[in-house]
Amino acid sequence: MIKLIIFDVWWTLAYRDVSFGAATKMLKETKAPVAYKDFKKIFENSIQKKVWPSKYAAYEILCKNMKVKPTKENVNLLMKIRDTAEATTKLYDFVIPLIKTLRKKYKIGIISNSSTFAIDQVKKNTDLLKYIDYPLFSYNVGVTKPNPKFFKEMLKLAKCKPEEAIMIGDDLEDDILASRKLGINAIHFKKDYNKLKKDLTSFGVFV
C-alpha cells in the first residue's frame, strides 16, 4: 500500500521563467574553462550541500571550483545571473491542485538538490511548502541526489518502507534510477500531467 508520494522540485513542480540558461550564461560570461556537461555537478557540490553564512561566501567557492578567479566582480556576476533566474520561480499550474488532492490520502514529501537561496525564492514566490509534509533538501543532509543517503533520510523521516513510497521526478539518473535501486517505486515525469495521472493509477493512486 502506498503511503508516501515524493516529488522532485525543479522541472517537476517548479520552473524558472527565463529566456536564458543560467548555467550557460555563467560559463560564457566568466569564460570558465569548464564543460557545460560538468557544470551541474560543480554547482551542486559547491552551493547545495550546506547552509552558508552568506551568499557571497557560497559563490566565492563556486568561482574557485569553476577555476575562475574569485574576484568581487566575478562573484557578484555569478550571483546576479543566478538571482535573476531564481527570481522568476513559478509552479506549474497543476501542482497545487494535485498535491491538495493527494494529501487527502497520502503524505507528501519533496527531495531536491537546492541551495538555501533557491528555496528562499520558492517560499517567496509560491505556497508550495504549505502543502508538503516532509520537505527535505540537499543542504539538510549534506549530499545531493542520486546519493542513496538522501532517499533513505526521506524514508526515515516519513517512517515509511521503500515499497510504500513513490518518487516522481524529471531526471532519470538522479530521481528514477537512484530511487528504484532502493526499492522505491518511481515515475519519470516528462512534463505531461495527463500521463502522470495515468502512471499513478498503476500504483493504485487515483487523482
Topology:
Elements: E1 4-7, E2 14-16, H1 22-30, H2 36-47, H3 55-65, H4 72-86, E3 89-91, H5 95-102, E4 107-112, H6 116-125, E5 134-137, H7 138-141, H8 148-158, E6 165-169, H9 172-180, E7 185-188, H10 193-201
Parallel strand pairs: 1-4, 1-6, 4-5, 6-7
Antiparallel strand pairs: 2-3
Helix pairs in contact: 1-4, 2-3, 3-4
If you had to describe this structure to a student in words, what would you say it looks like?
The chain has 207 residues and is of the alpha/beta class. It has ten helices and seven strands. It has two domains: 125 residues, HAD superfamily/HAD-like (Rossmann fold); 65 residues. The strands form two sheets. It has a five-stranded parallel sheet, with helices on both faces. Helix 6 links the parallel strand 4 and strand 5. Helix 1 packs antiparallel against helix 4 and helix 3 crosses helix 4. The longest helix has 15 residues. The mean pLDDT is 97.
